[in-house]
Amino acid sequence: MKKILLFVACVLGLSACNMTGEKQDAVQQERDSLQRIINEKDIELDDILSTFNEVQEGIRRINEAEGRVTIAEGNPESASSREVIHENMEFIQQAMQQNREMIAQLQEKLKNSSIRATKMQKTIENLQSQIEAQAARIQELEASLAEKDALIEAQGDAIAGLSNDVASLTEDNKQKAEKVQQQDKELNSAWFVFGTKNELKEQKILTKGDVLKSSDFNKDYFTKIDIRYDRDIKFYSKSAQLLSTHPAGSYQLAKDKQGQYELHITDPQKFWSVSKYLVVLVK
């Protein structure tokens, strides 16, 4: 009888042990499942917070770039300022597009997440409002820059027009000055020639004893001078006679050390007043 009771007690003891082990396994499985859920939620939350931080950093960098544009806008005419404005405006456009994309990602992640965070949703909406406010300011800044660019372009066109006018006027004045100079030179030009009787006849300068009576005398045979500066003329001959008419007292015909004649014009205006052509007969 004692053996039977002992056997029954053992059987009951083993059954109790089995039931306790199964319950412990169930508890452990439930604990593991909860831990997985917690881990998944942590990963989701970390992902959401990481994107959230990136959006905030993007907003901060846009604000800084906006400040640099505003500073450079104070002197948009300089090449360096225009380069700063261009680079920062390009960065702002790219950064704003990235922020919009990340906000959309945040909303999608929160929508598909097992996390139900009303405050997080409000925070995302606040970020979106900041981005839209930035977009409005940037739009106003772009309009202001476009207006200033148009003004600078108009000023550039006006300056270019003035430069063209100045260049045209300068060229016109130059041509007029050259013309006046040429006219002045012609007014102060005279021509002389010396030669033997036969030479002067051959060039039709001397015709039947008359000087320059023929209309087709050879003008190229004469030497051109400026009466303001050329006052001494050498004839390289020991015999010289003026055939053209020039007022007495306006010149001297004298010999040099070699006994050759040369002409010294003492009063140019008077000397050339009768004729601008000087003809001298030499032997």
Description of the structure:
The strands form three sheets. The protein has a four-stranded mixed β-sheet. A three-stranded antiparallel β-sheet has the order 5-8-7, with no helix packed on it. Strands 2-3 form a two-stranded antiparallel sheet. About 65% of the residues lie in helices and about 15% in strands. The model has no long low-confidence stretch (mean pLDDT about 80). With about 280 residues, it is α+β, with helices and mostly antiparallel strands. The N and C termini lie far apart (about 185 Å). It is rod-shaped and about 160 Å long. It has two domains: about 130 residues, Up-down Bundle (Methane Monooxygenase Hydroxylase, Chain G, domain 1), CATH 1.20.58; about 100 residues, no CATH class.
CATH class placement of the largest domain: Mainly Alpha
Report low-confidence residues grouped into runs of 5 or more.
none
Q: List the strand order in the largest sheet.
A: 4-1-9-6
Instruction: Provide the number of structural domains.
Output: 2
Describe the protein's topology:
Blueprint: H1 2-73, H2 79-112, H3 118-187, E1 189-195, H4 197-202, E2 206-207, E3 210-211, E4 223-226, E5 232-234, E6 240-242, E7 251-255, E8 261-265, H5 268-271, E9 277-282
Parallel strand pairs: 1-9
Antiparallel strand pairs: 1-4, 2-3, 5-8, 6-9, 7-8
Helix pairs in contact: 1-2, 1-3, 2-3
